[in-house]
Design goal:
- The chain is 19% helix and 43% strand.
- With 179 residues, it is of the alpha+beta class.
């Protein structure tokens, strides 16, 4: 009798477990692996170079951001998705800059880059992460860029190759940049 009850209970447990597993949606193992990696990693793990829709790109290195013709801007990762950005204390002048009109807007080109970056057609601002860096023309081929004292960027992953970088004022979509 005890054996029959034990077999009965084991059978019920086995059937109930099998029934629960049959209710789960079938997911391709490669797709499941990708979903798990997205949920478990920090937003910038493994993909550390980003580009906006207008071609402006930058690279998150260990403690610096490489941008603006090779200049580095320091940052501190506060947690998995919040970055504190430390800009230079003083404004900087960039020489050999070319600003031109292009398809109803403007493009700015830095000397060591092969392509231009979009600018607003009325504002002298360079979109950079969640910030908008104001600049003024110094000459026909030089600009003076003004940096905020510090800034907080929040980063959220949209997909394996896309992120949003945002703050209280601005939000910008960036995609994986592969030169």
């Amino acid at each position: 009798m005890k054996e029959a009850i034990s077999i009965f209970l084991v059978t019920i447990v086995f059937i109930s477990c099998s029934y629960k597993d049959s209710k789960k949606p079938v997911i391709d193992s490669q797709e499941e692996e990708n979903d798990n990696s997205l949920n478990q990693e920090i937003p910038t793990n493994r993909i550390h170079a980003w580009s906006d829709g207008c071609g402006f790109s930058f690279e998150l290195q260990e403690e610096t951001i490489w941008a603006f013709d090779g200049n580095e801007i320091r940052y501190n990762r506060l947690n998995d998705s919040i970055f504190e950005v430390f800009y230079p204390e003083k404004s900087q002048i960039f020489n050999n800059i070319e600003i031109q009109n292009y398809e109803g807007g403007r493009l700015i080109s830095f000397p060591n880059n092969t392509h231009g970056y979009c600018l607003d057609k009325t504002k002298n601002e360079i979109p950079f992460g969640a910030d908008r860096l104001e600049f003024e023309l110094v000459s026909s081929n030089s600009i003076k860029v003004f940096f905020p004292r510090k800034s907080i960027w929040k980063i959220s992953r949209i997909s394996n190759g896309e992120i949003f970088i945002y703050n209280e004022v601005n939000k910008m979509k960036y995609t994986q940049y592969i030169p």
